[in-house]
Amino acid sequence: MRTYLVTGGAGFIGSNYIHYIFEKYGSDIEVVNLDxxxxxxxxxxxxxxxxxxxxxxxxxxxxxxxxVAKVFKEFDIDRVVHFAAESHVDRSILxxxxxxxxxxxxxxxxxxxxxxxxxxxxxxxxxxxxxxxxTDEVYGSLPEDGGYFYETTPYSPxxxxxxxxxxxxxxxxxxxDTYKFPANITNCSNNYGPxxxxxxxxxxxxxxxxxxxPLPVYGDGKNVxxxxxxxxxxxxxxxxQEKGELFETYNVGGHNxxxxxxxxxxxxxxxxxxxxxxxxxxxxxxRDLITYVEDRKGHDRRYAIAxxxxxxxxxxxxxxxxxxGIRLTIxxxxxxxxxxKNVTSGEYQKYYEKMYSGR
Length: 359
Ligand code: NAD
Ligand code: TYD
Hints:
CATH topology of the domain at 2-192 and 228-253 and 298-319: Rossmann fold
Bound molecules: nicotinamide-adenine-dinucleotide, thymidine-5'-diphosphate
Order of helices and strands: EHEEHEHHEEEHEEHEEHEEHEHHHH
Distance between the termini: 52 Å
Radius of gyration: 20 Å
Structural class: alpha/beta
């Protein structure tokens, strides 16, 4: 029986990953989800799984050494999958310090506690693995007219978010180089799918369109992101731990570059197609809601991953076509109005006001 410690498992990608491994391994694994339940963490994302006897939830901060060490004492952890992070670029521009604290400081605590628990003789106990989940944003920005991020691309982060993730990646690399700590790093492109918090482009636009609010497109709307369906990312993470070489970094990407404005228009068109005429939300949805607003500071122009290494080394490639993934995602949000209402009450209103008023 293998035991996983998943950090940030109540967030968007972490919860999708936990769903994925429960579907794949069922009762053959034990899962400990350590999450501080910040604004981005939501236990509802794991409804159903939280009743399983092999699922354990620990509410704790990854910066809290004692709490993390206690988890390693209570459970014989075999695999760490480290998602917990502050994850939103716009918030990092408003308040960078928490990003350094959580993303760099918290990763240092995770690495140290795993190292303490796993050390044996001059090495580490067999079979132990730490996977650090990172982003392609550490590589900086690509020109519009070509080029891709590879594992060998030098780091050149621009936002406080990507700088803090780059710092955390460097710490993991340092642990691998210094101690031969058994780890991998994955750098993934933009994810979309169910349970994504509506501060990010796709769920924000879906929610605003359904409620008849302006759709705030930054700058000229032509920034490009490479979108990957979240379940494909969950599968990549699992495959890296199953089949990847320790100490390697793998880029994970969707082969799916889109300009932001294309995505926003597609969301409107898909909503109009999927909503039945009698649904009162349909009358709110219109391309007229699109509003160009002041650009994000330091806005990276283009991200694109060439996932050649992960394909050649372990056979992973994106499976979900964007046209299918976006429909699944929009359907999920249409069917989960209560989820959206819950997460957009309270703190979200204040964030939205601070972020978008006067823009
Ligand atoms: P998210 O913001 O939806 O979730 C983050 C989770 O971490 C939440 O459950 C939150 O409660 C938890 N958390 C935050 N601070 C914590 C702390 N101090 N201690 C314990 N838990 C804490 O983020 P996400 O979009 O699911 O991203 C997960 C990871 O994947 C992050 O490391 C992010 O950098 C990386 N990533 C995200 C994307 C993307 O498109 N969203 C792409 C590539 C990589
Ligand atoms: P986001 O989902 O925040 O992801 P990231 O910044 O990590 O790539 O943003 C995706 C793109 O959408 C990015 O180019 C910024 C843009 N964007 C908007 O135009 N309007 C918005 O309200 C948001 C949240 C993002």
